[in-house]
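This is your field. Have a critical look at the following sequence-structure pair:

***
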Amino acid sequence: MTKDELAELLKRYQQGMCTAAEKRLIERLHLYSHDPKAAPSDDLVKDEIWQNIEAHTTGQKRKNHRPVYSAAAAIMLLIGVYFLYHYMRPSPTPSAKQHMVVDIPAGGNRATLKLSNGKRITLDSLNAGIKMHASAVSYLNGVPVPGQRTNDDLSLSTFHELETPKGGQYQLMLADGTKVWLNAASSIRFPSSFSNDLREVTISGEVYFEIAQDKNRPFRVKTKNQHIQVLGTSFNVQAYPDEAVEHTTLVSGKIKIEREGFSEIIYPGHRASIATEGVTISEVDTDETTAWRSGFISFNEQTLADIMQQISRWYNVRISYEQVDPSLRFGGRVSRYANVSEVLRRLELTEQVRFKIDERRIVVMKY
């Protein structure tokens, strides 16, 4: 395949004329934007090439010749796209690099458990989460959480709260077996044990649920602007107090969204967006919505402002803008556990924005 043919492939992608296979290939290769000058990360493309070569060569012994030819063509396309970009695109300008002197590490397992009596326990960052028992709290590996006392009143249906700071995440297994994942700057208020006819929790921020099935005890999630009722399902709720819109995305099962004057059943692959002016139901890619739980920061057609909000919470940094349009849209994903400079570098490759790190503040500037 010639460079001209590869360039034509990328042009077809921008025009929305690629086949499904071509589209998946291109989108997995790089972080893209609506700017036609957008370019991928060399490391990302190299990794993609070698992963595909390894996958195809490992399976060739069990396949006939035709799939081998197909695999070879796919590998050549991957290599061709990389070299086309590597040798034809301009290098980032020095001004885009010189602001990356300071770096900020990614967030991690950080949370505080507030018991019903007001006692606060800082949870171990080497553990990923905690589990509620009838009269005690343990880490997910079974080790008791230190600092508990017999008078901490965990045996009664009293309410406790788990909260993560900016730059934190944590898991929780409730007494009924329901699994909960908290993103940065989030909280959940829950009882040590549920009643015989209802399971109810209250959340703020972004929380993912895998509800334990119990037909006799419906599960209800409360936020500032909505009630979510469910029997057994998986869903993601984004309800940050500093955002005007709450989003509830259903991965599996069925839920009912309720608020004053509104009640609607939501089905898998759909999102309910709740704002002051009403509720909007839309179809979404649930893999993108829940990417944070899989260890990624996803930029699926999101605005620059939304992307920087994610970065602000996860890296615990302040964001400011200088002569740049915050409504610019980008796409792609990057590891959630990379240092912030790597995340920003991927965005700079689009040649639309550049960044300056000033202690715990990131300045977003026009490229």
In short: The chain is about 25% helix and 35% strand. The first strand starts at residue 32 and ends at 33. The radius of gyration is 23 Å.
